[in-house]
Amino acid sequence: MAPLPPHLRRPLTLRFQQALRTIGARTTPQLARAWSSLDSYREPDIAIFAEQTAPALNAAKFAAVRQAAGYYTLTAGVRAIGVKAATIAVEPDTRAPFIATWLALKNGDPIETAVEHGASRLDALSTDFIVSSARQTGDAVIEKSGLKIIGWERIPDDDACPWCEEVAPGFYHSAESADFGHSNCGCSAEPLYISD
Q1: Which residues contact 162 (CB under 8 A, 6 or more apart)?
Q2: Which of the listed residues 29, 55, 103, 153 has the most CB atoms within 10 Å of its CB?
Q3: Continuous segment of H or E residues that includes residue 37
Q4: Beta 149-155 vs 188-193: how paired, if at all?
Q5: Helices marked H in 38-110 — which ranges?
Q6: Do the domain assignments include residue 189?
Q7: Cβ 154 vs Cβ 172: under 8 Å
């Protein structure tokens, strides 16, 4: 089998990006429940929040890596390649909602408003973790496949911002190097095969 040509990869990429959004949509409410159950939002509470959200985030990472392994296997045109989620070195930024809360408090917002600012970061926490896990799975799949590629490109998702549209045509040496963006970025990384 050979890698799918670009015109056949595009529809598959859009379905893959939607699958990652679905994983995020299932994960964020679980994070929100843990966030609202906290008694306070101080430094020691970060560890409590991380512990409470670990099952949901681990499940999200497992699902993202599984989706990504399937996507990259299909686009590479190779037999199924398994990737263990534990081998993908991405960690969730469970500190981010606390920083947003503290910043709002520093700016004089009441505690209720500050906590809402923190809660508004939960979707980004979930999305960033899921998409980054999926992007970096690409390197593992291509390495295991033995296929030779010339690099990677970023494929903007349906809601891509102007900045993502601008950097998408760039050339990256690995999926990991293409794994950057802004909060809530849903763009994916796609290998560029020599025959493209």
Answers
A1: none
A2: 153
A3: helix 6-37
A4: antiparallel
A5: 43-76, 96-106
A6: no
A7: yes
